[in-house]
Design goal:
With 374 residues, this protein is mainly alpha-helical. The chain is built from 14 helices and four strands.
Length: 374
């Protein structure tokens, strides 16, 4: 145990003497957390909107007021001609244009269909889809309001049958992006920092020649491996605690599940990330190679894990590949503990998958590491 302790102590001294490592451990996670928590915001509100009102009636103005009163749209321009639409899209002065035809009010009064044209800047397809959904809701509410007014004016006592959806969002009632993104940041930072630190720290020993000095000492290979991995595992746990605290104090993300369970299952995830770093160190000769190899693994893992995009929206071959990415299971665990309060009775399949991946990659990495030492 003494020999492992001295290796851990040496590893910490070497790590914190290197300013790049300190930046990677403390500064990079904070920047990533703030960027992904604040900047990557999928809540689409206050869409800049232009209007061409050819009807200029009480009804058309009432419709524009309803659009403006919603939290989704800000009326920023009143245009005269259709030709102006292309210009304001090109200059990015507006993201949506509403064109009200000249017979808008007349058709409404005749109880006829009165189309309103909505043009959305579709250069960002996700943005356009959400905006179309929001304006459809506003138009539907205006139609219901106008129908009710017409009936009241005509003093009809009949009631029009309607299907009235009672929608409710569970676990994230306000549909806040930060509630979805910030827990995922824990997974991403754990993957990036611990795998990169492990890979670079071991290749650094090889670069400066101290690995050979360690090999000729009485230290056993398993003691050397544990001494190399334990410091970064402890750093990983510290970062989990830091981000969990920041998630609640800065972003107000609810923690409905057990913090202890979160830390315990983070330990399983650390097996995979530390094993990955150890494996990369066995195939890299320099720190630069280790860094490049780590990012070559990390980038596809993040994209295919469901961190940004739902896995169900991916093509079937990509969905099959995601089953071999440990980050997929850890993301589900973290988001379920934070937002749903899930326990081990629900999360055990994901925990088991992480355990299998972790043991497999650690065993493979240790075998290659021992071979290189030999």
């Amino acid at each position: 145990m003494n020999r492992i302790y001295y290796i851990i102590k040496k590893e910490y001294i070497q790590t914190f003497k290197d300013k790049r490592m300190v930046m990677l451990i403390f500064v990079a996670p904070i920047i990533q957390l703030l960027l992904l928590g604040y900047a990557v915001n999928m809540d689409i509100k206050h869409v800049s909107t232009a209007v061409i009102d050819r009807d200029r009636s009480f009804e058309s103005r009432d419709f524009i007021r309803d659009v403006s009163a919603s939290r989704y749209f800000d009326i920023v321009f009143y245009l005269k001609e259709n030709e102006d639409v292309h210009k304001i899209f090109q200059k990015q002065q507006a993201e949506m244009v509403i064109i009200i035809p000249p017979d808008f009010s007349r058709k409404l009064k005749r109880n006829e269909k009165s189309p309103v044209q909505v043009i959305v800047d579709g250069s960002d397809s996700n943005f356009a889809t959400i905006v179309v959904g929001n304006i459809t809701q506003v138009v539907r509410r205006f139609s219901e309001k106008y129908s009710t007014k017409m009936l009241e004016r005509m003093k009809y006592s009949i009631k029009i049958p309607r299907v009235n959806p009672q929608t409710r969002i569970w676990y994230n009632p306000e549909a806040k992006s930060s509630n979805f993104m910030v827990p995922g940041v824990i997974c991403m930072i754990l993957l990036v920092v611990t795998s990169l630190l492990t890979a670079m720290a071991i290749t650094r020993e090889r670069e400066i020649g101290t690995m050979e000095q360690l090999i000729v000492t009485p230290i056993k290979p398993i003691e050397l491996i544990l001494g190399k991995l334990i410091p970064f595992a402890l750093i990983g746990f510290c970062q989990v605690g830091l981000i969990v605290a920041a998630a609640q104090l800065i972003f107000g993300v609810p923690m409905k599940g057990s913090v202890l369970l979160l830390f315990a299952l983070s330990g399983l995830a650390l097996l995979t990330t530390l094993g990955l770093g150890l494996f990369i160190s066995t195939i890299s000769q320099t720190q630069q190679q280790a860094m490049m190899s780590t990012f070559m693994v990390i980038m596809p893992s993040i994209i295919l894990s469901g961190f940004f995009f739902p896995i169900t929206n991916m093509p079937r071959p990509a969905q099959i590949i995601t089953y071999f990415i440990p980050l997929r299971y850890f993301l589900h665990i973290i988001r379920s503990i934070f937002l749903k309060g899930s326990g081990l009775d629900i999360l055990w399949p994901d925990a088991l998958a992480l355990l299998v991946f972790g043991v497999a990659i650690i065993a493979l990495s240790v075998a290659r590491f021992k071979k290189r030492l030999g």
